[in-house]
Design brief:
- The protein is of the alpha/beta class.
- 55% of the residues lie in helices and 10% in strands.
- The strands form 8 sheets. Strands 6-9-10-4-11-12 form a 6-stranded mixed β-sheet. Strands 20-23-24-17-25-26 form a 6-stranded mixed β-sheet.
- Strand 9 (558-562), helix 20 (570-584) and strand 10 form a beta-alpha-beta unit.
- Helix 4 (80-121) runs parallel beside helix 9 and helix 4 runs antiparallel to helix 13.
- The protein is elongated, with a radius of gyration of 39 Å.
- The protein starts with 17 loop residues before the first helix and ends in a 10-residue tail after the last strand.
């Protein structure tokens, strides 16, 4: 199903020889390619068989299953860590032997050879020039052999880390597809993405250091033995301090571990908030909630930064201790040695300092890193283990399925006495004692109010909702269409085929019955158009039909359809019902959940649910005639008798019972409609029948689903997240603004913009200046330089001191004073020994050395702390700038950039700037200064060494440039190929119910493995290129050490101290040099994150939020709510065709306007222009004030909206209603009472302080819609907009919303975009849009009088019974408004004196050249041609 499955070039490592593998010679062709042109994903090699995601996943799954059964047998808790050890332990242990050879043989042998060389230069007896050359060669060979042990070790260890990570990811993904819905409630997509992005990444780093936990102590013991020989017991002073560092570092490890956990929690929280904000940006802008959400995000960021700052204080201490520890340890050892009356010699100084330097690297860096990383990895393993131990669907499912597929006539579903609930935590059952059955060829319709358990019933059949009692038997293959349509990244065709083989005839038939033919014609590449992340290039209705087409194409016997008709227009709904559900699927077993009551007559059986209880079951006529309170369930409104629009009533008997005798004319109409109309009893509203906030939710966020489709509505935390990271590789062209995505646009997915070339110097400067300005930068620069001078100065002073002692000893020997110099350097009496000229006495030397070491320690600590504080300040500033920029960018930006891409800047990029960049930059600065210090020290001894230094420098510069051009591309490719891994997890979890219903898990696992393999091939190349470069640099270091060492062989008069200083300094280059250069490349890679953050800090903002002082409208504006459009057009892109074309109309104060039209006609775009989400051309006036001259908050804050997708945010119910804290509790409770949510919210723990789950998932879709209505009531605005607000609710809730709007917004102007025509039939006027033009604008009754009007055609597509009812509502509304008797039959239209609406003369209105509208003034109808120059008058 996925596009990434293409054949890749074979991996050259598979055919390379042993030497080529060791020195990575096989990589050269790729390096040359990368040097000549930018690399792309096509250059990535095929993953090696041992690294393939599928194989690794299978290996680890087997070991984990064994661990589970072993722990079960022993009654112990299973350990994920043990599974990893059993799976990868041996390969990992084998590589560790190379590290042991490097640390315990080479790193100790080299200083000993240096000691021999110094003794030779000191002219000690018994040393010939051959010995000198041998010792010199020993020093050089140490560096040469290092290349052949260090790099294979590092490569092997990182390769192991990659395999462990890939296997863990495969295991996590497979588990995610098996989770039960209750388990999904205890986690979020964000947390799962975090497991895949953060937790498994620990394996890449921790594997490197864990071997040093045993190598460190062994190396320390060997060094201690050698130093005992050299310094005697004095060495213990230094070694004891070194050993004391270990518990200190272990403690630090624990502190870092705790802080890491705290940071992870706070980052999770910030990412969740950011995800909610980005997903709900349209709502935030329309509600003018930018400020409270900015405060919320900044607060979350502050609490995260506080923890990171604490981490950095500890880190600064740790790093400065590491930097100075070797000097302090050597200082203590030598000071003790001197003070016990021993003479200092160059050999002792430099052998001691070289050995201690090597041990110190392992014991104060790698060993504690091993402890810290081990602790963090252990936590990550526990987090993964907790996830892997979560409850699975199979464990809870008790649906009986037939093993063999029966013949179609034997297929069916039998449900007997099923009681079920989503979680044991909740008291109420979701379903109670449900019994029903459906056979082949039958249609069972399931109806009931919002939250009654309709969707839950389908989930029970699918095995998603565990039944506590009763039985469910499913005979046949199941297909499922979810309530909230789910589409994944891929083409429309891939979304419909869903892994099934392509059959052209069947495919075309499915496209036809699902009414997708016209839509596919309009898409740029027909059915090969890419549907982006979450289907962003399709409108809501199109997504719903693709979702249905997927189910219909699947060769199934049983079809579970969860309200597929709500998201589409009435005529499309009729087509889907007749052609698809009753036509194409007529021989199948069908269960249809619906709120569309016009289809019920044709169902074989109707199951009525209320609060999870079966209220009634039977066919349409049985239910109508039964004594059951069918009326209140299906009632569409709760108006009083005198309201202008009648609602449904069950029968004449109940009409009389309510004390209202209808007129004869009305009764005939009612009987004609099969008595499904009703007039409800005065004020009859049963609070208990409104769905309560069902299954109250515990703090651990168990999901409860009240009729809402789980995979969509609950798991809205998407792409999550966290490093989410996500569809970075996808960038969509502009999608339409409206909920209905007016006009099919080019849903093509392009690659995310990736920067090319090196990062500009200005980016570095901006980063540092954001941390505290020029003054701090200069102070920091000076502090670093002085610290390095002190660092090199201590070494230089030791050399100077040792030389003085050597000359002094010579003078003593020459003057033949009373003393004897033992061969092993035993005690000398210095009482009368003269101090050589140019040197100082011992006591002065000690004082100077002590002063230098103390100053180094203090300055080092100060500059490190200052540096990290500056980096954190910079990080905070950059985040705030980016957030301010993103929240002010026009909404089009969010339509053209997938959530994951934006979130990636706030997660991955910001994470790098927070945690990795400061350490890397500090490393580079320290190593660069150290390197310059070493060159200066060596040059001070032998100036001629500068010549080869320059030569090697030129080679190095060329090599670095050659390497970086490839490395940068490889690193970027690694980032881009990582994103689809997260996106795939996120998309899979959103469509989990669908994937499991279609049994498509294996297809998705294969796709995940393909995404992982692509990322693995990029990561593999990243590891190989860094190794290749490391080897090249170490060759340069090795040659440099050889030059320095052998150059002294020609300078026989050199002093031992100078030789020791020069060679030991050069030896420090080995390893340090290549690490520094690699870190400099890493800084550049990580600076791209700063570049990306800065890029999002400079986005073009939309118009000003506040109005200029001289243009501010008077207080209380708008007083009337009159809206006027003059020549308004709208296009989302300069090159696109306009989606609104020259709209001219006027809406009078307090008018109720219905807006209708096909999907893509421009309905939602009209609201977009009213709210100025995208700036239109032309003029819009509200109460004669041009809105384009006002600030956005003045415009948007004075228009209330109930959006198409009801959006709730995590946090309390109070914050969801009133984020500014503007209203008293009484006002909030009153608003909730008016939308009939008061009881439901009172039942929640905490009432108004009750915490909403992610996306408000502990409320059903309908209840969330009511919360949005309560928000609108609180705001008391004169203009209210409903954007298909009742598409997802049952008729009863719909009626409730309509009734509330009529009573609470009587004195307001109300614009309603509707799919359900009955909601706008009693409007003052109806606006009919087609292809962005206003085709008709008049009273519904008048438009219906014209049989050729577009509105009449829309109404007639609902079916005869519904058409008659709609005419009736329109007629009664006209009658109530004008006091005239409305003529309700269309046949008499020609003789009627009622004015006729002006409509299109052609039957296909989109071919018209000019808009035609009909403007009404008072009670007179004035037909007019509204051309381009006509200005509407109110």
């Amino acid at each position: 199903m996925d596009q990434t499955r293409k054949t890749r070039p074979p991996n050259p490592r598979d055919t390379a020889g042993t030497l080529s593998k060791m020195v990575f010679w096989w990589l050269l062709p790729l390096m040359k390619t990368g040097h000549s042109r930018p690399l792309d994903t096509g250059d990535l090699y095929h993953v090696q068989p041992q690294d393939a995601s599928q194989g690794l996943g299978d290996r680890l799954q087997k070991k984990w299953d064994e661990e589970l059964s072993r722990s079960k047998a022993k009654g112990k808790k299973p350990s994920y860590l043990m599974s990893l050890v059993r799976c990868f332990g041996w390969e990992y242990a084998r590589v560790g032997l190379l590290a042991a050879f490097e640390e315990c043989v080479l790193r100790i042998g080299q200083p000993l050879c240096l000691g021999g060389l110094i003794r030779y230069f000191n002219g000690e007896p018994g040393y010939t020039s051959v010995d000198g050359w041998l010792f010199a060669t020993g020093v050089v060979m140490g560096s040469l052999l290092y290349i052949f042990s260090h790099h294979p070790f590092f490569w092997g260890i990182q390769h192991s880390g990659m395999q462990i990570r890939v296997a863990s990811c495969a295991l996590i993904y497979r588990k995610a597809l098996r989770l039960s819905k209750a388990a999904l409630g205890k986690t979020t997509i964000g947390q799962m993405v975090n497991l895949l992005s953060n937790d498994v990444n620990r394996f890449d780093t921790s594997v490197i250091f864990i071997h040093y936990l045993w190598i460190g102590p062994v190396q320390t013991a060997i060094v201690l033995a050698i130093l005992w020989q050299e310094l005697g017991p004095s060495c213990l002073a230094g070694i004891m301090l070194l050993i004391l560092f270990v518990p200190l570092q272990s403690w630090m490890g624990k502190v870092f571990s705790k802080l890491r956990l705290a940071t992870a929690h706070r980052t999770d929280e910030r990412v969740r908030i950011m995800n909610e904000i980005i997903n709900a940006m349209r709502v935030i802008k329309m509600y003018t909630w930018e400020k409270p959400f900015t405060a919320l995000a900044e607060q979350a960021r502050k609490s995260e930064i506080d923890v990171i700052m604490r981490t950095n204080y500890y880190r600064a201490v740790n790093m400065s201790l590491f930097f100075t520890s070797s000097k302090v340890i050597v200082f203590l050892a030598l000071l003790t040695y001197i003070l016990t009356g021993n003479a200092l010699t160059a050999e002792k100084v430099f052998v001691t300092s070289s050995l201690i330097n090597n041990v110190r690297l392992v014991m104060t860096l790698f060993f504690p890193f091993g402890i810290a990383m081990g602790a963090e990895t252990n936590i990550s393993c526990k987090r993964i283990q907790e996830f892997l131990e979560m409850e699975e669907r199979e464990e809870t499912s008790n649906v009986q399925k037939s093993n063999l597929r029966p013949k179609l006539k034997d297929c069916g579903i039998t449900i007997k006495g099923v009681t079920a609930k989503w979680s044991d935590v909740t008291e109420e059952n979701t379903l109670n004692n449900i019994t029903c059955s459906v056979k082949a060829g039958e249609l069972l319709a399931v109806i009931g109010p919002v939250g009654s358990g309709k969707g839950s019933l389908l989930h029970a059949v699918l095995g998603e909702l565990p039944a506590k009692s009763g039985s469910i038997s499913v005979r046949g293959k199941v297909a499922y269409a979810s309530q909230e349509p789910w589409v994944f990244s891929g083409t429309v065709k891939q979304n419909i085929l869903f892994g099934q083989p392509y059959d052209e005839k069947k495919y075309n038939e499915v496209i036809k019955v699902c009414a997708l033919e016209r839509d596919l014609e309009l898409l740029p590449m027909k059915d090969m158009t890419m549907v982006g992340e979450r289907g962003v290039s399709l409108s809501g209705g199109q997504k719903a039909r693709v979702n249905l087409a997927r189910a219909v194409y699947y060769d199934a016997d049983i079809y579970l359809l969860d309200d597929p008709l709500s998201a589409v227009d009435t005529h499309v709904g009729r087509h889907l019902f007749d052609q698809c559900i009753m036509g194409h699927l007529k021989h199948k077993v069908r269960i249809l959940v619906t709120h569309q009551l016009q289809y019920l007559k044709e169902a074989n059986e109707i199951l009525v649910l209320r609060e999870g209880h079966p209220e009634a079951i039977g066919n349409y006529h049985q239910l109508v005639n039964s004594g059951i309170d069918f009326a209140s369930l299906l009632a569409e409104g709760h108006e009083e008798e005198k309201t202008t629009s009648p609602s449904r009533q069950p029968s004449t008997k109940s009409v009389k019972k309510n004390g209202f005798i209808p007129t004869g004319k009305f009764m005939q109409e009612a009987e004609k409609l099969g008595s499904s109309l009703s007039l409800t009893r005065r004020g009859r509203v049963r609070n208990d029948s409104i769905a309560s906030v069902h299954d109250s939710v515990e703090a651990d966020n168990i999901l409860t689903i009240s009729g809402a489709h789980l995979a969509g509505s609950n798991l809205s935390l998407d792409e999550d997240v966290n490093d989410t990271p996500t569809k970075t590789a996808k960038k969509l062209k502009d999608t339409d603004d409206g909920g209905d995505k007016d006009g099919a646009e080019e849903g093509q997915v392009g690659a995310e913009v990736r920067s090319v070339g090196s990062v500009k110097a200005s980016i570095y400067l901006q980063y540092f200046l954001a941390g505290g300005g020029w003054f701090l930068l200069i102070v920091l620069f000076l502090a670093n330089v002085i610290t390095q001078v002190l660092f090199s100065g201590t070494d230089y002073w030791l050399s100077y001191w040792a030389n003085g002692e050597q000359i002094r000893a010579r003078l003593l020997l020459e003057s033949n004073e009373s003393m004897a110099l033992a061969a092993n350097g035993s005690t000398i009496s210095y009482q009368d020994a003269p101090v050589p000229e140019g040197y100082l006495d011992t006591i002065t030397n000690v004082y100077v050395y002590t002063g230098l070491t103390a100053a180094l320690f203090v300055l080092s600590l100060g500059r490190t702390v200052m540096f990290f504080v500056m980096c954190m300040t910079s990080s905070r500033t950059l985040h705030n700038r980016m957030f301010q920029s993103v929240i002010r960018v026009p909404i089009k930006f969010f339509d053209t950039h997938p959530v994951g891409q934006i979130l990636n800047r706030f997660t991955k990029d910001l994470g790098q700037v927070d945690e990795l960049l400061p350490i890397t930059v500090f490393d580079v600065v320290t190593i660069l200064l150290n390197f310059l210090g070493i060159i200066a020290v060596i040059a001070s001894i032998n100036i001629w060494v500068l010549i080869p230094t320059l030569g090697l420098g030129v080679i190095f510069v060329f090599l670095r440039r050659f390497y970086l051009s490839t490395a940068r591309d490889v690193k970027r490719l690694e980032g881009i190929t990582r994103s689809p891994v997260f996106s795939h997890l996120s998309a899979s979890l959103q469509g989990l119910t669908t994937i499991r219903a279609f049994e498509a898990q294996q297809i998705f696992i294969d796709d995940f493995d393909t995404h992982q393999d692509l990322h693995s091939s990029a990561w593999f190349l990243f590891l190989c290129t860094t190794r290749w470069f490391g080897i090249c640099l170490d060759w340069i270091s090795c040659i440099y050490i050889a030059i320095v060492t052998y150059s002294f062989m020609g300078m026989q008069d050199s002093l031992g101290g100078d030789i020791g200083l020069a060679i030991s300094s050069a030896m420090m280059l080995s390893g340090m040099f290549q690490w520094g250069v690699r870190q400099s490349a890493e800084v550049e890679n990580q600076m791209t994150s700063v570049e990306r953050v800065l890029e999002y800090s400079k986005l073009e903002p939309e118009a000003a939020l506040e109005t200029e002082k001289d243009k501010t409208p008077k207080a209380g504006w708008p007083e009337n709510g009159e809206i006027k459009f003059e020549d308004v057009s709208l296009q989302y892109n300069p090159n696109d065709t306009p989606v609104l074309k020259n709209l001219n109309f006027c809406i009078q104060a307090n008018e109720k306007i219905g807006i209708v039209g096909r999907t893509g006609a421009g309905k939602s775009s009209m609201l977009t222009s009213l709210f100025r989400l995208t700036e239109p051309t032309g003029d819009i006036y509200i109460d004669n004030v041009a809105v384009k001259e006002l600030g956005l908050h003045d415009v948007r804050g004075n228009i209330s909206i109930i959006p198409q997708d009801p959006t709730l945010f995590s946090g309390t119910m109070r914050r969801n209603l009133d984020p500014f804290d503007q209203y008293e509790d009484d006002a909030l409770w009153r608003a909730l009472e008016e939308v009939q949510l008061k009881d439901a919210v009172s039942d929640l723990e905490g009432g108004l302080e009750a915490v909403m789950s992610e996306g408000g998932s502990n409320l059903s879709v309908g209840q969330r819609q009511l919360v949005c209505l309560a928000r609108a009531i609180l705001r008391h605005n004169r203009i209210l907009v409903l954007d298909e607000a009742t598409a997802n609710v049952d008729p009863r809730t719909d009626g409730l919303i309509q009734q509330t709007i009529r009573s609470k917004f009587r004195n307001c102007t109300v614009l309603t975009i509707a799919h359900r025509l009955h909601t706008i039939m009693d409007s003052d006027k109806v606006m009919v849009l087609e292809a962005g033009k206003l085709e008709e604008f008049d009273e519904p009754y008048i438009l219906l009088r014209n049989p050729n009007s577009m509105f009449t055609k829309l109404v007639e597509q609902t079916g005869k019974a519904a058409t008659d009812q709609l005419r009736l509502i329109a007629g009664r509304a006209y009658q109530a408004k004008h006091g005239q008797v409305a003529n309700l039959s269309v046949e008499e239209e020609s003789t009627s004196e009622t004015p006729q609406a002006t409509t299109s003369e052609e039957s296909r209105p989109q071919h018209k050249n000019e808009d035609q509208t009909s403007q009404r003034t008072g009670n007179q109808d004035v037909p007019s041609e509204a051309g381009k120059d006509d200005k509407p008058a109110c």
